[in-house]
Give the backbone structure.
Amino acid sequence: MNTGLKGTRAIALVARREFVTQVAKKSFVISNIIILIAIIGGIVAISLFTGGDEDKTTIGLTGDQSLVPSLTATADALGLPVDIREISDEQTGRNDVADGRLDLAIVDGVNGSVTAVSDKEIPSQLRAVVDSAVAQRAQANALAAAGVDAAQLAAATAGAEVTVDTITAPDPEQGQRIAMSVAAVVLLYMQILLFGTYVAMGVVEEKSSRVVELLLSTLRPLQLLWGKVIGIGTVGLAQLAVYATAGIVTGLATGVLTVTGTAVGVLFGTIGWFVLGFAFFAVLYAAAGSMVSRQEDVNATAMPLIVLVIAMVGVAMSSVGNPDGTLSNVFSWIPPFSAVLMPLRIAAGVASPVQVVATIVLMLVVTGILSMIAAKIYQRSILRIGKVVSWKEAFGR
């Protein structure tokens, strides 16, 4: 075999060819534009529908407006934004509730009682706000009638408060961390599965057209395999980086995301683990592709890989609610599960530096071993045109 092209130069030439072939496709460009528009438009839509006054509960209040301070203070304490408006009478309040201009109308009654008018059952949190405000007003009126100075009483009882001392400090960023964890897992799943399939399809196309026979006259099988993996993987990496950057920048610009440091960490963690996860699967997809001569047969040989990717995502999704649990902790050490679990743990802030470094080393070692095995399968199968090569034959048994 002529091996005029050596080492990294041979791999670089193959990688460049694969990269240019993929990005030059019109379908690739158009689909990415559509996906980017969907990502940016979706985040903008979320910011519009979840921000501003749309989140506030609108309350109308008749008569005595002394309930307003208590209603506002109690609602703020419970994390329920309210917009309180004065209404002229009960009928106006009922009409506004029926037309959707008010969520709740509070109509003053006798002896400090009120009637709460709602279109449907009042949420428990809002009911607690109204009950508390009415009770506070009744107590203040009763104290005033008994000649007790409400200000002095408040000062005397101000020290009677409950201080909460949690062993584990609450994480105000938890919701956004979970959302970004799920997004990272989904993106990794899609990219690894999609571009792994691209590798297999590319191998089959070269095999069926016999182009591979010409390529192997100047290249070693391992050079051709890694050139294809790196070229297609670079396309997937660039695509993933663009998607993630567009999502994070749009999220920060619209206020949907506020955790800048976490977002940047998730971005780089997702990109880094995509490289490792893709390399792991791509060499196996290349081997699977070399075993068949028709693209419609690829799924048969690649089915174990597809099942493995789905299992990885299943474990990751099961760990979203408890990223520091036993399931996540154990499987994150096992290649290739670490490819989707480590970004999740990084986003959740529960991955130690030692674990990050150790799992990276493990993935590199296992991927290196698999690449040598895949190169042997590739070498034994790539020139066998016609029937599907069995795994037993591919391993030379």
Summary: Residues 7-40+173-394 form one domain. The chain has two domains: 7-40+173-394, 55-140. The chain has a mean pLDDT of 83. Residues 174-208 form the longest helix (35 residues).
